[in-house]
Amino acid sequence: MQKSQHLRLCTGGQPRRKFFHFECQGGSRLQDAKLHSLELVVSPDRMQADLIIHSEIGQIEITESEIHQFLKSQQVKFGILDHVIEQICDDPRRYVNQPQPIADGMPPVPGTDGRVEFAFQSLMSDEPKPKEMDDGRVDYYNIVSIPNVARGQLLARKVPPTPGIDGCDITGAAVMAKKGKEVIIKPGKNVVLNEDKSLLYSAIDGQVSFSEDQKINVFPVFEVKGDVDFSVGNIDFVGTVVVRGNVPTGFRIKASGDIRILGSVEGAELEATGSIEIKSGIVAQDKGSVVAGNTIKTSFIQNGNVSAQGDVIVSQSIMFSNVRAGKNIICRGAKGFIIGGTLQAGEKIVARVFGNASATPTVLEVGAKPELRNELATIQRELQVIHENMRKADQGLNVLNQLMQTTGDLTPDKRALQIKLTNTRLTMEKDGKKMDVRRQEIEKLIEGDSPAAVEILSVMYPGIKLVFGRMVRFIKQEFSHTRFVMIDGEISTSTLL
């Protein structure tokens, strides 16, 4: 049998692949001679190869040994699909000009990342479940929980990463697996690590708190037995604050840990590095603010200003409020409605009912962290001021230039004004360029892909303005059991099951 072999390269618009031809001529007599060729198409990563048979006339015969010899000549040593070779040899004509997978490599299995394992589950309970009573009602009075720990108690341990399993391409060459990433236990306040930094212990008796950068802290607890009033005053505490009554308008609570309010909050100012839980709800009358470095949980929000780096979880309703969440805004309780105001979430907004039959204007923004949107709005306002001031400076300089052309010179005070206006304009132009660069950066971040969604568990009424990144959609009809997402640059819908 006479054989020849040559190499071609496929360029075009596809990734470059190698094509190998192996021509075979068989038959005992010249008039019976039949010509066929074998072609091998190898993927760029050498993890897959396809075999193509070329033949123009007559019947062809191909043996398994011929194919194996061809594969060997092309350095294919691993993952050969013997059952495919058998099928081809049984009826070669059937596979002419039809690419057939002939060899598959074994992809590597990446290692698992290291993780932090907490000593008991209650420390990681992001959303304690309320108690369900015998009559089916839910007792939200029991959602407040404080995970207390003792001095010397183990809080967390580090689980090391795994190396992964190497793969192999069709030539038999090893494909290295990606190793798992190391994890670092981040100690906060009042905790200690052992020598190899794999175990974390509490240094005091107190409450565990997780800050937004995933540091683990243990804080002592400051407790107010009743309402916050003038006998207590404003509270600024390096730990967790528990108030067993209400927080009226005008008072301020600041905590390095968490804040737990068993009553209600009016137009007060609450700021916590950790989480904030308010049992009875927020009735702010557009006064004060509630700001948390992690999660905010409450029964309802009315005319409030609420902001959390993590989630905002509301069991009943959000009405005419400005609510911002770095991650999700969830309102899925028995009522679970959102009416009026502006809600901004980095990832998702979920509620049973959005808006009302009166089409009350309500703005829902998802797909970018609220702080980015607020920064972008601030930059846009400042750029408008800069451009207006630059326009006024240009007008003043034009007047001075015309005066100098007319008189041939400027008085000392006019020349001093000219220098001042020139320097001021240069400064404003420099500041404007910096702001414009930052504006473009934020716009790219807002336009980037994200798992943004708005989920309607029951109904959404007209009057809603949806904002995904920089895309806007006005709701002009009712939707029920629907999820809004961004697909291919458009706000699309799908049905919630």
Quick structural overview:
The chain is of the alpha/beta class.
Any key phrases for this structure?
4 helices, 22-stranded mixed beta sheet, FapA_b_solenoid, disordered N terminus, FapA, alpha/beta, five-stranded antiparallel beta sheet, FapA_N
Could you characterize what this model shows?
By secondary structure, the protein is of the alpha/beta class. The chain folds into 4 domains: 3-104, no CATH class; 115-216, no CATH class; 220-371 and 450-495, no CATH class; 372-447. Helix content is 19%, strand content 39%. The protein has a 22-stranded mixed β-sheet that branches. A 5-stranded antiparallel β-sheet has the order 1-2-3-4-5, covered by helices on one side. It has a 4-stranded antiparallel β-sheet with strand order 6-10-14-13, with no helix packed on it. A hairpin with a 2-residue loop joins strand 37 (479-487) and strand 38. It starts with a strand and ends with a strand. The model is unreliable at 1-33 and 139-146 (pLDDT under 50). InterPro entries: FapA (IPR005646), FapA_b_solenoid (IPR046865), FapA_N (IPR046866). This is DUF342 domain-containing protein. Residues 39-212 form the Flagellar Assembly Protein A N-terminal region domain. Pfam families: FapA (PF03961), FapA_N (PF20250).
